[in-house]
Design brief:
20 strands; alpha/beta; 20 helices; 7-stranded antiparallel β-sheet; Rossmann fold; single chain; 559 residues; Beta-Lactamase; Helicase, Ruva Protein, domain 3
């Protein structure tokens, strides 16, 4: 029975039954199919489609398409761009529906102007089909944000079997149905997201336990890189290369962006090698002017220059029997490069003002964030020195390419700084974790360390790390993504805006107190009964409780 043939009481009864049925579904694709099936049954639509907002929040992707008249679609509808030329795409009817939150009802698309309907014309041509009427209804979550659009086309009247327009009185009932379906869909997406996070954390911790042990055995019986955290594919490659070179005297060149841990790798190579009883000497080639750097590296004799009132042993000589680590070698001056080349070739060093050279037994590990071949082409680096240094290159991956290691790194640094500053910070809120995992960290591990050190200092004793404890650049990066979602909400009245703000505070405070309603209510200065009422008003209870157990397990796994 179609909507126009149903008495109002039966319509409401069917909607209640459907809502109960939808809430028991645990498979998103099956849920979407049921939503489309019922919407078509309710309206008599020949075609039903659901477009879902993707993670980038810039496209609506066709997720479900049901068409009774076609068994195979030769031409499908492409993803809908929400922004074109940096502005909202208000020419596409589905995009317009998403942005405004309005129900769109078109009697005949071939006689309608005001929207770009070319995708439907092309679909009809490619499938030998004719789209006639169209009804588009937004799916909006409890934040009044559009998460998808339900699209129904071609109302087929039961009596005449002809195509017709969707009646205006049908709009409200379909919108009510879409509202209930959207809440269920949003909750299921949250549950699925939490389950994915839990699965990821389980897998990460399992690999962390198994693969680190395997890697340590592969390197050697006495080589233990306890300070290096990493089980990602790119880090396994680094470990494999270290295993091959660690007990040799070969010169190593570490390539990688700033903050990727080049000095840590150099130290691990030294302290797990046959030279571990010797000195590990590190010098950043950009830290001193050329003349001072030369004195530091090569040493000098008393009277070699003004102010040299006594002999000074250089770092190269001091590293005899051990390892000399030259960081940012690509920034060394050409004059010093020539002198370093002689050290590599002859294995001897002549201090400034000395008449004879001193034989040295050193291993050199150099590091740079530059492309040395490019600097050679620019005339800023000696080609012969490059070939001397590039005996055994190791490429260190940036943090954005080893996101699998991020949870373990976060856990390690939080524990480290909690202990260092005497704070019992044992939890990381799901929202803070999500922002950290979505950020690219251009400063790599050094930036991550600084971020978590700041978070521990900002956090209260026995507290939880929240988004407000993170630096502005991380929050702003997240806001750039959130701005797109916010753009999907047209202007609201004061009551709506106030309600959304109140709901966000309640959710954040629930996160902070691990879902404990009594503590949350006390911190907000309201009764527990009042809190429960507000949670029910803003549909917080279902979404929060649905993900609470997963979030709790996630925190336990991390910390």
């Amino acid at each position: 029975m179609l909507f126009e043939e149903m008495p109002p009481a039966q319509v409401m009864e069917d909607l209640i039954k459907l809502t109960t049925m939808l809430n028991t579904e645990r498979d998103i694709n099956a849920l979407l199919n049921k939503i489309v099936e019922y919407a078509r049954k309710l309206t008599g639509a020949e075609v039903g489609r659901i477009f879902i907002l993707d993670k980038s929040k810039r496209f609506l992707h066709l997720s479900i398409s049901q068409n009774d008249a076609l068994t195979n679609e030769n031409r499908t509808i492409k993803p809908i761009e929400l922004f074109k030329g940096g502005r909202r795409n208000m020419q596409d009817i589905t995009s317009y529906c998403a942005f405004t939150g309005k129900v769109m009802n078109i009697d005949n698309i071939y006689q309608f102007s005001g929207f770009d309907l070319q995708p439907y014309y092309q679909y009809d041509k490619g499938n030998n089909y004719q789209t006639y009427s169209l009804l588009a209804v937004p799916f909006r979550n409890h934040h009044e944000e559009t998460i998808g659009v339900l699209q129904l086309t071609n109302l087929r009247k039961k009596t005449s079997k002809k195509l017709g327009a969707f009646p205006a009185e049908m709009e409200n009932i379909v919108a009510a149905f879409a509202s209930q379906a959207a809440v269920t869909l949003n909750n299921m997406q949250l549950i699925e997201h939490n389950e994915q996070l839990l699965q990821l954390m389980n897998e990460t911790n399992r690999k962390l336990a198994e693969e680190n042990q395997t890697l340590r055995k592969q390197i050697s019986r006495h080589q233990t890189f306890t300070d290096i955290i990493g089980t990602s594919k790119s880090m396994r490659m680094v470990f494999d290369l270290m295993a091959k070179v660690i007990d040799t005297n070969a010169t190593v060149l570490l390539n990688g962006e700033t903050g990727t841990g080049k000095e840590l790798i150099a130290k691990s190579i030294h302290f797990n090698s046959i030279r571990k009883k010797g000195n590990f000497v590190a010098q950043n080639c950009t830290a001193l002017p050329e003349n001072l750097l030369e004195g530091e590296l090569f040493g000098y004799m008393k009277g070699a220059f003004s102010g040299a009132d006594k002999d000074k042993k250089g770092l190269i000589e001091y590293a005899h029997g051990g390892t000399l680590f030259l960081d940012e070698i690509g920034d060394m001056s050409l004059g010093l490069q020539a002198k370093l080349l002689r050290v590599l070739q002859e294995r001897e060093v002549r201090p400034l003002g000395a008449l004879k050279s001193i034989t040295v037994d050193i291993r050199i590990v150099a590091a740079t964030h530059h492309s040395l071949p490019e600097r050679i082409e620019a005339g800023e680096f000696r080609e012969d020195l490059y070939y001397r240094l590039n005996v055994f290159p190791i490429e260190l991956p940036p943090l954005r390419e080893r996101k699998d290691d991020l949870p373990a790194l976060i856990s390690y640094f939080l524990q480290q700084y909690s202990k260092q500053y005497g704070k019992d910070v044992v939890r990381l809120s799901p929202s803070a974790l999500e922002q950290l995992t979505q950020y690219d960290f251009p400063g790599n591990i050094r930036e991550l360390k600084n971020t978590l050190e700041r978070a521990v200092l900002m956090c209260e004793e026995h507290g939880t790390v929240l988004p407000e404890h993170l630096p502005n650049e991380i929050l702003q990066a997240q806001h750039q993504s959130d701005d797109t979602a916010l753009a999907l909400c047209e202007s609201h009245n004061l009551k709506t805006v106030t309600g959304r703000y109140e709901a966000s505070i309640i959710r954040r405070r629930l996160d902070e107190y691990g879902g404990n309603q009594t503590k949350t209510a006390a911190s907000l200065g309201i009764s527990r009964r009042a809190l429960i009422d507000k949670m029910q008003r803003y549909t917080i209870a279902s979404s929060h409780s649905a993900g609470q157990s997963s979030q709790s397990k996630l925190k336990e796994l991390l910390f």
